[in-house]
Specification:
about 375 residues; alpha/beta; D-Maltodextrin-Binding Protein, domain 2; 2 domains; 12-stranded mixed β-sheet; about 35% helix; about 15% strand; disordered N terminus
Amino acid sequence: MNAKSTHPFRLLLPLLVLALVAFAGCGDSNLDGSDNEDVTVAKASGTPSGDLKISNWPLYIDEETIPAYEKKSGVKVEYIEEINSYDEYFGKMQPQLARGSSGGRSLMVATDWLAKKLFDLGYIQKLDKEALAPAFANLSPDVKAPASDPNREFSIPWQGGMTGLIVNKSKAPNIKSVSDLFDPQYKGKVEMIAEMRETPALIMKSEGIDPEEATTEQWLDAIEKLKEATESGQIRRISGSDYAGDLASGDAIAVIGWAADALQLSTDNPDIQWVMPEEGCLVWWDNWVVPVGAPNPTAAYDWINYTYEPENQARISAWTSATTPVAGVKEVLRKTSPEQAENPLIFPTAEYTKNCSSVVSPPGDEEDQRKVEDAWVDVTTG
């Protein structure tokens, strides 16, 4: 998003290369790598050409990269901004993916836990790593593969970041913890994101519970607290990335949200700021995955390779303020966008994220996880 944009989006603040180590295994550290050997490899073939349909979050890219890639490659890109929350997106895509259809999409974005879930269900394919050799050569060695895909068989990072607090400091200067969102003085002015693995986890962190070690009951307790606050009117609504508009309009003064949204919102209103929760944030990556039925994996890989060229990735990062997985981007930004290259919010240190946790799925067996999922659906659809 550029400085003139008024609708921030799900992006997150980049971390200093040293801090990227903290993202190792980010996504779902409760998941081991899959041994799904029956999944096919989406093989590249020939020269990139034709049409490429990409599915992503709204405004998760700059305005120059797509036309520049189309001009260079001759590939026509249809870039669909259709993700508002991952749980909602999975529900939308699941029926057609189960039929072996991608709806014409050759690339989708999925965070680590969702990529693993899609892979285990047979909804995405393995990557042609030979075709992606240029991208893997530019992948920062400090960006470690998640436990859910330790060999990068089916996912490659797109962008990453942090989940925490976004606050209008002129209206709520004392909010420093997620627990402060439950203070009655902010009744009806608080929103939280509709991500099951993020909002309850941050509520648990505010109560001194490590979400990576939490029990099923602790997950359920966090969701019950959220439900009571929603029913009482304390929480205005549980939202997707559209919470940004409510912050901009003043309908909300504090939210659980994504860090780069705060950076973008502050361009138009300096009072709206990112606040690292006292108890720490959540960190994660979004990844490119190739769905079953993908019609043009050759162009998909060419696109990924193009966006992994440091100069192209630096242009994307300068516009989005998102964490980049590509080596050498900060060095490029020092020449092209020095203010962003040195921005401590865009490149926070490892010390800054020391209390942050990975995004994980609820613990236990299928029955335990279903309890949490059902409780979450009850809150978000009730």
